[in-house]
Fold this sequence. Notes:
Elements: E1 5-11, E2 17-19, H1 22-26, E3 34-40, H2 44-51, H3 58-65, E4 72-76, E5 79-86, E6 99-105, E7 109-114, H4 119-129, H5 137-171, H6 178-208, H7 216-282, H8 297-318
Parallel strand pairs: 3-7
Antiparallel strand pairs: 1-2, 1-3, 4-5, 5-6, 6-7
Helix pairs in contact: 4-5, 5-6, 5-7, 6-7, 7-8
Amino acid sequence: MQSGLIHAYLLDGAGRGRRLGWPEVAAWAPDQGKLWLHLDYTDPEARTWIGGAAQLDPLVADALLTEETRPRTTGIGDGLLIALRGVNLNPESQPEDMVSIRLWAEEHRVISTRKRQLLSVNDLCQQLESGRGPRSCSALVVELADLLVWRMSDTVDTFEDTIDGLEDRVVAGASGSLRLDLALLRKQTITLRRYLSPQREALARLMVEKLDWIGDQERLQLREVSDRLLRHIEDIDAVRERAAVTQEELMSRISEQLNSRMYVLSIIAAIFLPLGFFTGLLGVNVGGIPGSENPRAFLVFCVLLAVTVAVQLVVFRWKKWL
């Protein structure tokens, strides 16, 4: 990376791109071909170039450099200001912590900025270097949106596999970290869903923008991308609902186990309550206790306690408490 310039490609119109450096970018003119610049907006030199030499509208420059952004598409003159997000597939990261990319697209030039790495951008670079890349700026924007959505497929499949496993654990009666795992899955799906809905609106807005340099073929491809994104959203909603149902089932099972244990304790307490009363009554240290002089009194008392327990069990069985 050259001082904020992650890479710059000059498209040859046949699917291949040639890498450029800052001096070649500075000397670029539209008649040389389509240009794609990808910048790290946290780098001071990149920020200076966007704010000055790029000759952008101040509103566009601010949007390309802003820290927080929400997926959207806004038409400004003959260009498009686009903000999209992709799943975070970087090492030691959570996929729901989505990575944003900002684009300013014109007929002859595309400027994109990011802070963290996006694998979809790397995929697009590989296509350009192998001669299978987009041939125009509009095709580049559409292909990038397509790759961002494709990269979400593995994450959504992982969510579905995770909820399948959690449901099996609940059916098998396992507990362990189930509550924590379900809460984490619901948090991930809710966070991911929060960004995917406006992203679909951004793609829909991109389809209806009436710009001459966006062809019918790109609009058809955008429709397919939007439909695929909608399927991801529906799958995430299904996972979230299944997680909620699974969590309710888990709480129901925990409640049943607690009620069962409380029931056993209640039966035990009910059995020993009269026994405790009798032993306490005869254990008081006062005169006149019956049988205190009879050597068989203890045996008679034990038989009385056994009879009491037997009568209780018969009553419990008759009441269908056992």
